[in-house]
Structures are given as structure tokens and as C-alpha cells.
Write a structure and sequence with these properties.
This protein is of the alpha+beta class. The chain has helices at 5-11, 14-18, 20-44, 89-104, 107-111, 119-129, 196-206, 209-228, 230-295; strands at residues 84-85, 114-115, 132-144, 150-161, 168-178, 184-187, 305-308, 313-315, 324-327, 333-340, 343-348, 353-357, 361-362. The strands form three sheets. It has a six-stranded mixed β-sheet, with helices on both faces. The protein has a five-stranded antiparallel β-sheet with strand order 12-11-10-7-13, with no helix packed on it. Helix 3 (20-44) packs across helix 8 and helix 6 (119-129) packs antiparallel against helix 9.
Length: 366
Amino acid sequence: MKHGDNDLRSKFDIENLKDPRKRASFLKTNLKWIIVAIIILVLAIILFVGSCGSPDKNNPTAGDNLNYVVPGLEAKGGSNGDYKVNADDRINKLVRNYFNNFAEGKVDELEKIVSPFDDNQKNLVKSLSEHIEGYQNIAVYFKEGPAKGSYLVSVYHETKFKDINTRAPGLTTFYIHAKDDGSLYIDNRPESALEPEVVEYINSFKGEPDVIELANKVNSGSAEAFEKDKALYDFVVNTYQKIYTDYYSAVQDTAQAASKAAQESSAAASSAAASSSAEASSAAASSSEAQQQSQSAGGFQVGQTLYANDNAKVRKGPKAEGDHLGVTKIGKTYVVLAIEGDWIKVRAEDKTEGYVKKEFLQTTKP
């Protein structure tokens, strides 16, 4: 879940910002949405939080106020329970370390606590981190989530971009889970991969009064920052536009490649199955034909009962040099087990088996 992501993107058409003739009227109407869309996209591509490193007091990413609360905002409550602010040390640590690692581009650390976390997202974090100096005034608002040990967390933060004086207020929402050992991780699945009851719960969360109030507060602060600092505006619509254009292009290429690979794999499997089936049918037909030819050799058939017409040697194999197992007895019956050229494999009345030349066997009792 990316807070307000879909609605805001629909309002943010980058082409309007590229055309100087449209820019003024577009900004006047949609300025607050542009701010929120950009800031949220910058920080909400990865939904969740983690890493267990200790915040660096000399790093602005850690924040100069670890108990920050958005001025004028008190939790009003909702159907999922009141917001709790900075009230869980585990969540606080997870959130602040997430932003530390994000700002520093430490994708290996993020990967330990964010799942799934694909290569395109890693590349995006690396690109964004080159322009982020750190985060300040982080405030963690959270509520119990839909599953036991889960949380819906709205994080207020002010982003300090490199060489930009004005900090940009932003809001990122996370869906956090607790593992069996009590540690927290970030469920970064897209909404389409979440369970229906989770999606329903999240949609309800987004419509609660205190959640909306917090979002509106951030919207106002973001719009003010963008109007105040032209450098921030220029930076976002130029540098960040290219980063996200490249990211979405990479995502599309990855999806197309995966689809093509799946189609090729399916086609190869179907071809292999068809080939295997054809070969099996051909082999079965050849075997059946050979068996029929073999079984009919000399007028004898497998399963037929024959009589010995001489005291002939019984061999272990179908050759004259085979080990000698015994001799047939004239008039005794022998059941045909197999036919191999001039040799007949038989079973005697005493259940012993061996090979006898077919000339020593006949269909009638001598």
C-alpha cells in the first residue's frame, strides 16, 4: 500500500510541467498535489521499514528530534483504533533505520527487512539516495493492522535534498509485520498480491478521519515548501522526473521480459511434450509390431503350450554356447514365454525356465 499513490499520480501529469505555457495555470490549480505526489513517490516506492543499525547522531537522517509530533495534530481515532504516536520503540527503530539506509543507498540493509525488494527498486533507491542528504523531524503514527502482530504505519518526515535549502514535508505509509521472534519486517507486496481482507482493511484505514487529517497536514506543508523554494521545484520536475521515467521504463522492460520468457518456456514445454508423445507412440507401435512378428515366428505364439519332440538341451540364453541347464523330455509340455529368432524361451512343468531351439518343439504330442 502506497498512501494516496494512485490518486495522486492521476493528478500529476509531468507533461504539464514541461510546457512553459501550461505550467503557470497547472501549478496554480494542482500545486499541492504535485508536491505530495513527488514526495510520496520519492519515499513510498518501498513500503516498509527495517535494519537494526543504530541511528547516527551526527547524521541528519536520524533526525534532530526523535520524539517529533506534527504541530497541531492530535489523533482523533477511527474504526481501526486511535493513532499512537512514537509509542513503540521497535517500530520507531525500524522506521528511522529504514530512512537512514534509504538516504545512504544501503540496499543490502534494506533487503534484509523489505520483501519483496527487486533489482529495479534497488536501482531506484541508489539513484534517489544520490540526491538525499537526510531526513529530519520523523514522526511515527501507527495503528494495529489486520493480522496479529501487524501494523499500519504513517510516517511524517521532512526530506533535506542536497544543495536545496528548504526541507520537503512528506508522508510514507508502511504495512509492517512481526516475525515469530518478535522482530519486525516490511511486507512490500503490491496490493494485487495482498489477501482480500488485508486490502479491505487498508482501504478502511485510508478513509479514517485522523489518517485523512494527517495527509492534509502534509499536503499543506508540501505545497508551501514548493511555492517557497524555486530550486526545490526545479530540482523535482527535472532531476526526479528523469529518475522516475527511467525506473518505470525498467519496470516495464522487466515485465515484458518475464512475460516473453514465460511464453517461450510454455511453448518449449508444449513442443517437448508433443515430441515425447510422438516418440512414445512410434516406439510403442514399433515394439508391438516387432513383438507380433516375434511371437508368430515358426507358427508359435507367446503363451502357447508346446511339446518336446526330442531330448534337447535347455540353455540359459538364446545361443548354443549358453550355459546348459538341463534337457527336454519327449512328450512333456512347455509354455512359450518369448521367441527370439530360432530360440524359444519356455517354462517346464516343474517351473524351470530356459531356451530351447524351436526345431525341438511342436504343437502336437509326439
